[in-house]
Amino acid sequence: MDFTQPLSTGFTVYSKSGCIMCSKVKNLLKEKSIFFQVIDCDDYLIEDKEGFLSFMESCVGSSKPQRSFPIVFYDAKFIGGFQETNEFVQKLLLQFEEMF
Known about the structure:
Elements: E1 11-15, H1 20-31, E2 36-40, H2 42-60, E3 71-74, E4 77-80, H3 82-99
């Protein structure tokens, strides 16, 4: 199965149905008017869960399996879940404000 790579520019959110934290991270990015791509992982998990987890391991760059959702990347670099993304976005917006 071919898995979708994280975007090289901007936010990529790997999400699954019924995930409250996935909804929270998508709402956060929408509220801040930040563009992001959502990758729905339901089919990945049903058809090839182990393959998907192995793919995520290579994307994250860690031998520690990433088993909780959402899985968020910025410029193809792993950020984390909702809490880490929230902190990252706040810092990003502060840096942006300081530039102007």
